[in-house]
Amino acid sequence: MRYEGGFRATTHHGQGVLTSDNGYRYEGSWVDGLKQGKGTVTYSDGAVYQGNIEKGLRTGTGILTMPDGLTYVGTWKDGKLNGEGTLTQVNGDEFTGSFINSLRNGLGKVIYANGDIYEGNFQADHREGQGSFSGHDGYHYIGDWQKGQISGDGVVTYSDGSIYQGALVEGLAQGIGTITYLDGSTYEGSWKAGVINGVGKATYPNGLVYQGGFQNAQNHGYGIMTFDDSLSI
């Protein structure tokens, strides 16, 4: 290991460069033997950090570039991502928002490489709480998330133009919900694993109304069908 730069009372102080045989290199400010202030660190694996350092740890504003192309621009505390920043993954996905101890926490926005966009809350690096997702194929969702999955209450606009509002589990309608199709027909009632199942009410553009049991999206069991002439069968 080799150091070249300023000294005070036999310790590194001021501007200096520290290099190691394994490829590690630090160039920047020192205070009483500690890396402190602005500096550039090149790690033995090829990663490079440029920014503020306190007591030898990345703290404040800085930029980290990994050998595989991953980059982070933002704030740090005690060597970890903490505060606001932008993380760009190797595949092109880009997150801008809040971090706690290098995990996404709080509000943020992800622009995925394929054009999908998520904007909302994160917890422990997962989409959690309220958030919206817009797919490049026209799919749109706004509502609840749990552990990265669409789960809870929300509104889905599908790529064919139909709109679902109600309960969902892992991205599928589950529980009570209402869907309105592009032709004006509607269904309100029970769903299971994304399919109409249970008791509900279907209204069709020709005025026909069916209220009763359903199985696999078909009338099943007891029900009442009403036509425009008010005849029930």
Describe what this molecule looks like in 3D.
The structure is a single chain. This protein is mainly beta and 233 residues long. It has no helices and 20 strands. It is rod-shaped. 24% of the residues are buried. The mean pLDDT is 96.
Task: Quickly describe the structure.
The chain is an all-beta fold and 233 residues long.
Structure keywords:
mainly beta, 0% helix, 233 residues, rod-shaped, 20-stranded antiparallel beta sheet
Annotate the secondary structure layout.
Blueprint: E1 2-8, E2 11-19, E3 25-31, E4 34-42, E5 48-54, E6 57-65, E7 71-77, E8 80-88, E9 94-100, E10 103-111, E11 117-123, E12 126-134, E13 140-146, E14 149-157, E15 163-169, E16 172-180, E17 186-192, E18 195-203, E19 209-215, E20 218-226
Antiparallel strand pairs: 1-2, 2-3, 3-4, 4-5, 5-6, 6-7, 7-8, 8-9, 9-10, 10-11, 11-12, 12-13, 13-14, 14-15, 15-16, 16-17, 17-18, 18-19, 19-20
The SS-based structural class is mainly beta
Biggest sheet layout: 20 strands, antiparallel
| Mean pLDDT over the full residue set | 96
Q: What percentage of amino acids are in beta strands?
A: over 45%
Distance between the termini: 91 Å
* SSE string: EEEEEEEEEEEEEEEEEEEE
Cα-atom radius of gyration: 28 Å
> Residue ranges: pLDDT <50 for 5 or more in a row?
none
DSSP strand count: 20
* Total of DSSP H or I helical runs spanning 4+ residues: 0
Which descriptor suits the 3D outline? rod-shaped
Helix content: under 10%
The assembly state of the depicted protein chains is single chain
